[in-house]
Amino acid sequence: MANNLPSEFDVIVIGTGLPESIIAAACSRSGQRVLHVDSQDLHEDVEEAGALQKNHASVTSVNSTVAADSVCLPKEDESLSTVSCEIPAEQTPSSNPESAPEVNDVEAIEEKENDCNDKTCMQATSEKETSENVPTAENTAEQPKKNMITYSQIVKEGRKFNIDLVSKLLYSRGLLIELLIKSNVSRYAEFKNITRILAFREGRVEQVPCSRADVFNSKQLTMVEKRMLMKFLTFCMEYEEHPDEYKAYEEMTFSEYLKTQKLTPNLQHFVLHSIAMTSEATSTTIDGLKATKNFLRCLGRYGNTPFLFPLYGQGELPQCFCRMCAVFGGIYCLHHSVQCLVVDKDSRKCKAIIDQFGQRIISKHFIVEDSYFSENTCSNIQYRQISRAILITDRSVLKTDSDQQISILTVPASEPGTSAVRVIELCSSTMTCMKGTYLVHLTCTSSKTAREDLEPVVQKLFTPYTETEIENEEVEKPRLLWALYFNMRDSSDISRNSYNDLSSNVYICSGPDCGLGNDNAVKQAEALFQQICPNEDFCPPPPNPEDIVLDGDSLQPEPSESSSILPTNSETPKESPYLGNPEEPSE
Amino acid sequence: MHGRLKVKTSEEQAEAKRLEREQKLKLYLSATQAIFQKRQAGELDESVLELTSQILGANPDFATLWNCRREVLQQLETQKSPEELAALVKAELGFLESCLQVNPKSYGTWHHRCWLLSRLPEPNWARELELCARFLEVDERNFHCWDYRRFVAAQAAVPHTEELAFTDSLITRNFSNYSSWHYRSCLLPQLHLEPDSGPEGRLPEDVLLRELALVQNAFFTDPNDQSAWFYHRWLLGRADPQDALHCLHVSRDEACLSVSFSRPLLVGSGMETLLLMVDGSPLAVEWRTPDGRNRPNRVWLCDLPAASLNDQLPQHTFCVIWMAGDAQKECVLLKGRQEGWCRDLAMDEQLFRCELSVEKSTVLQSELESCKELQELEPENKWCLLTIILLMRALDPLLYEKEMLQYFQTLKAVDPMRAAYLDDLRSKFLLENSVLKMEYAEVRVLHLAHKDLTVLCHLEQLLLVTHLDLSHNRLRALPPALAALRCLEVLQANDNAIESLDGVTNLPRLQELLVCGNRLQQPTALQSLASCPRLVLLNLQGNPLCQAVGISEQLAKLLPSVSSILT
């Protein structure tokens, strides 16, 4: 089908994660010819798993996609160069970040065999799931009560779910927001404010007052506590200017430092776990102050919490950048895999890729997401893991008047050596789940398997779905309708030197990290962009349409491919139709 | 580089912009001209609406054009059918809203909307409330919109409870909102109209306590937010003192009657009316102020005819009735006495406590405690310090005098920008305390030496004082209001920074004036002393004017009746 892509680009981007998408947009905006490919048919394989059944598909496809053996297809003109193959994309890890340790999740394993490939098989899939592998959900068709959501309803409404494999939020003054604004990409997305910051203390979920309005309205704090909290937070905003107030405590942990301040235990808990969101055991005073300041800096820009969440899920964001890329002429090929990279023997530089149809596409720069590399390339790397759980529940962990709350809750580490668990609860107005349900993401750095890491927290916050219990008592905790545990690779913070045999013009993008914000992805994208296009502005806003000079006669020498690829004059920013399969022959 | 969009250079952009602006200006000017021509010619038709809307749509602050529109609309009202008018009004409301989006703080636009709505036979108030809610959603402190909302709520007779709930919701979002607090202060007294609470309309205690808790939440959360402190002050000190006559004094020697009032008033035809009854019969008199300027004043005097002071009767009764204030006072001049008076004691009337006037001292006491708690946490918060001082004043001015002075010192240190204001306030409070002490001692001598006073106030309270010592303060003038001290015989004001003696005028009994060590420069500054008929001793030592050559002669000429002038 796509055997007629142009044969030459400036930049080829493999993988549609956030950093790759940002780089693609930046390069395209700077006038580079960009080809962006992904072996998945979903637009953002890494970030988003579409609707419910799609998610299953992607989770389960892990084994089915056979790692194509690297094939080198030397071309005549390269006859001199033995082509060393940089690894085919369709490797196990490529399709799913969680794939590497996928084995440790029972549900995922069970599904693997029977779940095929396509969205259309959803009915079968779900049936299978219910009977076999979702221990928390009953597939009974009988409805116990009218307004109670049942598992079968969820399956039926599967399209209403947009489940991110990566759970993150946007700090409202974080690098990603600034970039979205600067580049005008923000116009492609809509956001909602996180409405509540929650804390888990003494077995109870409570709301953390963090903004001025929260503190003012809080009924749980005494007057003096209000003052102490506000005073401490105000200090944190400008702690750098008062070194005398914390210098003496620099050696100790932030939690010890908080004890020296006039804060009551519940205030200490709020600041440590819910505002700074730092580790009790390891974070230093400076870490804590920095994190608190960052949290506070983001407050009030868009609302009374520091965070935003994109409607339809975090996975929207790479898509938005891809759109920007396409507007400036970037070409997209999804469900298009790359067999190998072609490396010039003498210069050790990468020259081209060979795609799944054997077409050889040359380019100057190659951006490759970590999971696309072969095991050989990554053989020296010890990846860390992220433990994840995704739940569908029937009510919020903390009920209020409004059922449309988006909350973030930090459950502190229960024992030394483990890490705190971040819980993000999304309501239906985020367009990620059906009405009457909540989509809950749990994330932590792995110390064991995802289930071992996260199940204790799930048990604390939720009750399993059983009808008898409901009849007996009005349960306070939300009921679990569906649960999925998985581990995913954390390829962030890995030095380029750890990879074997990399050509200098092959750039690595890491997969998502465990952190809450997206600063890493943006930093990474900008750094790589600066290497590819030194001295170019990073994602400047698109020009005002009125300022675009349309008379093409002044600058004729358009590269033949791009002019033929674009049906309209390439100077007008218009969306390229090539989001699917390019059809016109380039030469 | 290939593939790059070609964009106009900044010069090209600037040029394009300039041309655009030029074009705009041309259109603007020609439309304005056309409107004025039509208006002059009396052609008030729809074309004027069209033209003005072009301009107002871009610049809603062009007030004259709104006037123009009103003229047109009034004209059209007489010409159009009800259906046509309804369409016209609908268009006008839509247009107004689009103007508000251009500038949500345009006086003219809001005013025009008020005007339009109040002319409609069946205005849709619900829609207007919804409009206000939308604009306040965008900017909760837009006072133009608040004003309009109050207008709408009043017209639509929205229950006060609903409006109160609305202010609640906005305060919850952001308590730093003067408009919202202010609206509460208007709504609460109306919501709690109790017949027995008197004209002051104080709030029932439970409501008061609830409001105090709310506002405490605000100032504990952010003690630097002024809006909450202002509301707090209102809650505690809302009541205006009742109109009253504080003191009535009759002097046989000067054949003069003096009255002091609870507030400044202007007596005269067309102004306030004072009625004087002597021995039960009305007596027509000329009222004047002690300084002779007849401006609004707290003290008024009148000369009495000899007949009403004669010694034939055992006593004369004088009664002054203040018509508007619905108040009166009576005093008796006994046979053989030089003077007679009647006055309220300051402590009885709590004259000086009007800053904070809640009856319940328990409420004040607990407020004082929370403020002191806050002050410990925020030792440098000026609002907290000031509130503590006011609360102490309201609770017991004499008991807390020492503590109050310490708080003033702290306050001055943390708020040096307002040092002069604080000095004046402190002077006022000290003077009040001195008056209270004098009245407890039942004397007519007032010692105010060494108090670091910067200003003199409450002088109308000193109507009966015969000896006043103001030495060793920081006074820069003896103000005109001093003329109210009708009984003053000896005035000591040594070692101040006095430059003018304007207030020492028309003091009928003043015999000695001691103003050593001041800053009197010119003999002319002493001119007013000539109006004090009994002045015999004047000590000017240590003033710059003593250095002048021939000063004694000059002064002797200026003040011939003063027998002893020390320079």
Automatic annotation (TrEMBL), chain A:
GO cellular component term of the entry, any:
cytosol
Its GO biological process annotations read: intracellular protein transport; small GTPase-mediated signal transduction; vesicle-mediated transport
Residue ranges with Polar residues bias: 557-571
The alphabetized UniProt keywords are: Cytoplasm, GTPase activation
Where does this protein chiefly localize?
cytoplasm
Determine if Cytoplasm is one of this entry's keywords. Answer: yes
Query: Domain of life here?
Result: Eukaryota
Location within or outside the cell? Cytoplasm, Cytosol
Q: Where is this region: Disordered?
A: 536-587
Query: Which SUPFAM superfamilies does the record cross-reference, listed alphabetically?
Result: FAD-linked reductases, C-terminal domain, FAD/NAD(P)-binding domain
Which Pfam families does this UniProt record tie to the protein? GDI (PF00996), RAE1_2_domI_C (PF22603)
Q: Where is the RAE1/2 domain?
A: 386-514
Q: Which terms does the record give in the GO molecular function aspect?
A: GDP-dissociation inhibitor activity; GTPase activator activity
UniProt lists the family membership as follows: Belongs to the Rab GDI family.
User: Function, please?
Assistant: Substrate-binding subunit (component A) of the Rab geranylgeranyltransferase (GGTase) complex. Binds unprenylated Rab proteins and presents the substrate peptide to the catalytic component B. The component A is thought to be regenerated by transferring its prenylated Rab back to the donor membrane.
Provide the protein name.
Rab proteins geranylgeranyltransferase component A
From TrEMBL, chain B:
Q: What is its EC number?
A: 2.5.1.60
**Gene Ontology cellular-component annotations:** Rab-protein geranylgeranyltransferase complex
SUPFAM superfamilies recorded: Outer arm dynein light chain 1, Protein prenylyltransferase, Rab geranylgeranyltransferase alpha-subunit, insert domain
Q: Which reaction does it catalyse?
A: geranylgeranyl diphosphate + L-cysteinyl-[protein] = S-geranylgeranyl-L-cysteinyl-[protein] + diphosphate
| PROSITE patterns in UniProt | PFTA
Location of the Rab geranylgeranyltransferase alpha subunit insert-domain domain: 246-345
Arranged from A to Z, the UniProt key words for this protein are: Leucine-rich repeat, Phosphoprotein, Prenyltransferase, Repeat, Transferase
Entries under InterPro entries matching the protein = Leu-rich_rpt, LRR_dom_sf, Prenyl_trans_a, RabGGT_asu_insert-dom_sf, RabGGT_asu_insert-domain
**The UniProt record lists the keyword Metal-binding:** no
Describe its function: Catalyzes the transfer of a geranyl-geranyl moiety from geranyl-geranyl pyrophosphate to cysteines occuring in specific C-terminal amino acid sequences.
| Family listed | Belongs to the protein prenyltransferase subunit alpha family.
Name of the protein this chain belongs to: Geranylgeranyl transferase type-2 subunit alpha
